[in-house]
Amino acid sequence: MNAEARPILSIRNLRIAFPGGAKPAIAVQDLSLDLYPGQVTALIGESGSGKSATILAILGLLPAGTLVSGELDLGDGRLSFADEKSLEALRGRVVGTVFQDPLASLNPVLTIGEQIDEVFQAHRGLSWRQARAKSVALMGHVGLPDPEARAKDFAHQLSGGQRQRAAIAMALAGRPSVLLADEPTSALDPTVQAQILDLLLALVEEGTALLLVTHDLAFAAEAADRIAVIYAGRIVEHGPVAAVARDPIHPYTRALLAASLPFGESAAGELPGIPGRMPAPGEVSTGCVFAPRCPYVREICRRAPPPVVARGEHEVACVLAADEGAPAP
Amino acid sequence: MSLLELASVSKSYHIGRRVLPAVEEVTLGIDPGEIVGLVGESGSGKSTLARLALRLLAPDSGEVRFEGRNLAGLGGEELTAFRRRIQIVFQDPLAALNPRATVRRLIEEPLRLHRIVPPGEIEAEIQRLMALAGLPPAYAERRPRQISGGERQRVAVLRALASRPEILVCDEPVAALDVSVRAQILNLLLELKRSMGLGILFISHDLAVVRRIADRLAVMHRGRIVERGPSETVWQSPTHPYTQALLAAVPLGEPGAGRRRRAAQPTVIA
Description:
The structure holds two protein chains of two kinds.
Chain A: E1 9-18, E2 25-35, E3 40-44, H1 51-59, E4 67-73, E5 78-80, H2 84-90, E6 95-98, H3 102-105, H4 112-124, H5 128-141, H6 147-150, H7 160-172, E7 178-182, H8 190-205, E8 209-214, H9 217-223, E9 226-231, E10 234-240, H10 241-246, H11 251-259, H12 299-303, E11 308-311, E12 314-317, H13 319-322
Parallel strand pairs in A: 3-8, 3-9, 6-7, 7-8
Antiparallel strand pairs in A: 1-2, 1-4, 4-5, 9-10, 10-12, 11-12
Chain B: E1 4-15, E2 18-30, E3 35-39, H1 46-53, E4 61-66, E5 69-70, H2 76-85, E6 86-89, H3 93-96, H4 103-113, H5 122-132, H6 149-161, E7 167-171, H7 179-196, E8 199-204, H8 207-213, E9 216-221, E10 224-230, H9 231-236, H10 241-248, H11 257-264
Helix pairs in contact in B: 4-6, 6-7
């Protein structure tokens, strides 16, 4: 990354906690992340890691009563995550969102065209006729065949891949500079996944900043410029894709890499998994969140949060990283 | 002759006046002690094939045979006996398991139904099965929502195993699981193949997973098997264009590969 590149969106010290129980359950703790124009940042985590909560926090869409703190910087001053009004103004205009299941994010009783028209009308005050012309052009732009006819279709009349293209068109209609994509290809067939990734990368080439949220390390490695790995609400490792995907340091990232197919290339026999399970929000202890499952755990790990060690842009929250050389995986 | 055999099986669905062929002239056999992978995308007919193998659907033509006997001719006690010997595990254990039943009851039901062990030995058998899948004894009192996704899928496998089947059909058994727990289920299936000589029909859209677990695999496309062979051979040198496309779509985790693919073949975005 060149040094003068400035992030278009910065998250600082995001903390999300859900009230209830004796004390609030912390879903995300001290998360900081930068998104750059024309770059892909991947946020990698398994279910319950807090990755989707992070997206909802950026959008101001967490359930009422959720305790959110931290700051969001869009280059023109900092906004508090607690300020829902300001966040609402961002949605659609600055930030577009693509979710996993296009059938759930598209309205079943409006045509695809009507849904995209709405965005043009709401955000840019266009007339219906102007909006429709823009919608059709945008649908062609995202690779929907015969966009004029597709604009009159309902979501159920499109294939899964076409639906996701339509959802992406809708996200793009507000001309966002940032696209948040939460598992954008997980519900699609493998051959369609590659096509949708290709489309997202084409948008990045045009200057969009993409936050790619996924559980799939192999998929993320192919697409991303930077990778952040989140576990139990904490970013445990963060850095350029080559460093994180080729030479991970944190034991969780390493285990994830070994368990990812087809990374685990030992031709046959046992697959390397990770024993145990991720602590739920509220179960998190004072020490390192990964300590209960970590093969390299030390006494200190259970007592105190791990130090964050930086090797250039590669940051790791683990005592191992502080050692001269980390043990071989 | 394989223990379970699909011989030139076809099945179509009728929607109004339209006829949708789901499975066309598929021939496939599974024996004890082997894992046969069936790879295909949504709509390829793989789940229809699973239902045909279990006699949950009847083929329009062709035969499904177990020990050489056509399933279409089975009835009464013979059918019950067949149902014990072949079991299924689905993708989503939360949907497949009764949410109000405890783990004990979920495993106990097939033990009683098929009279696998005498009533006095049921408790010991439940504990034996739970130990086999690495579930702590205390989990017997928990319900599906009180355990993690990987643990739930292990319960679904145990429930299928309780009746001591010879063939297990797994329809996308790890698609809903996280990467770190996916290995637990795959390792359990490999262990069952080794230690009990279980035959497994492993259905998945994920070529990389199937290649790792299956001894041989078949690729399904639009209702037909378009390629088959030993897993490693198909993975290393696929010959059918569809298999090649499927393989090319598997992310190998090579940093920057997505960008390079684009540079080599800059596709549409008008």
